[in-house]
Amino acid sequence: MTKHLYRTLTWPEVRERAQQRAVIVIPVAAIEQHGHHLPIDVDNVLVEHVTEEAARRSEGLILTAPMIHYGFNEHNMGFPGTISIREYVFIDFCYDVAHSFTRQGFTRIVFVNGHGSNQMLCNLAARRINNTTSALAGAVAHWALAKEAVDRLRESEFPGGMAHACEFETAMYLHIKPELVDMSKAGDRETPSRQNRFVYDDLFGSGPVHMVNRWSRISESGVEGDPRLATPEKGKAFAECAIENLVEFCRLFRSYQTPPDRDFNYHP
Ligand SMILES: [Zn+2]
Q1: Quick check: is 69 in a domain?
Q2: Separation of 169 CA from ligand 1 center, angstroms?
Q3: Is the peptide bond before 159 cis (omega within 30 degrees of 0)?
Q4: Where residue 95 sits, what CATH number does that domain have?
Q5: If you measure from the C-alpha of residue 152 to the centroid of ligand 1, how many angstroms do you get, rounded to a whole number?
Q6: Do residues 165 and 223 lie in contact, with contact meaning Cβ atoms separated by under 8 Å?
Q7: How many domains does the chain have?
Q8: Domain assignment present for 267
Q9: Distance from Cα 19 to the centre of ligand 1, integer Å
Q10: How many angstroms is it from 42 CA to the middle of ligand 1?
Q11: If you count Cβ atoms within 10 Å of the first and of the last residue's Cβ in the chain, which end, N or C, has fewer?
Q12: How many angstroms is it from 189 CA to the middle of ligand 1?
């Protein structure tokens, strides 16, 4: 079987896979509090499952890179367990990882992110690849790839019901590593970011005003949403949808044409 994890290749194999135009998937996550009922590695576990499983099923199309474990998390430092990387350091780090792939001849790179606050930074790192190399990079959150399944199964209120350590994340973890979830500590519903019709957060649509407060000011448990609505069956459906969509996107992405740069400026 074709190897699907980048870290298991030898260097001649890396060269061969670049030649075959494998799509590089870079999982990006965070170590942060996820309430009383989930471990601090939720973002790592979820994104690892989706990206590694997509690569395994892709028959050589996708190579999944080793994960970027830590994320941009200053807003959560009021809770124990959280590790935060400064925003500019994080963008540069993500860019350097992706850029290293382009230097080996890979031309299609996707950041698959598992932590909300990383998203805008992953977007910028991907854009910097497009602006500075001949390769193409994109960035997506794994929950955005699960949207069809969420639309079908979601019971949480909108907005705020699916945001953090919520129905979505708890269900996914229950599917992947149920032995580490303590549902007896799942607690009550909390929607701390829902301030008014301009300011709220949800994995599936945030308010028009982007304003992320320091989390310990507004949250008691660290949760945003209602984890009690989570089931392993929902988690399986979310995960399967994200995996299938990631494989399909990578297939489309590989076939993108990249016409040469043009310069329409007037040059006297
Ligand atoms: Zn999370």
Answers
A1: yes
A2: 6
A3: yes
A4: 3.40.50.10310
A5: 21
A6: yes
A7: 1
A8: no
A9: 35
A10: 6
A11: C
A12: 16
What pTM does this model have?
A: 0.97
Structure tokens at 237: 């459906």
- Whether residue 13 lies inside any domain: the answer is yes
Diameter of the chain by CA atoms? 72
For ligand 1, the distance from its centroid to the CA atom of residue 141, given in whole angstroms, is 11
C-alpha 115 to ligand 1 mean position (Å): 6
What is the whole-number distance in angstroms between the Cα of residue 144 and the centre of ligand 1?
Answer: 13
Select from 262, 235, 261, 250 the least CA-distant residue to 63: 250
Residues 73 and 144: their CA atoms lie apart, in Å, by: 20
Residue with the two structure tokens 């500019």: 88
* Residues around ligand 1, an ion, CB closer than 5 A: 42-43
Q: Please indicate, yes or no, if residue 262 is contained in any of the structural domains.
A: no
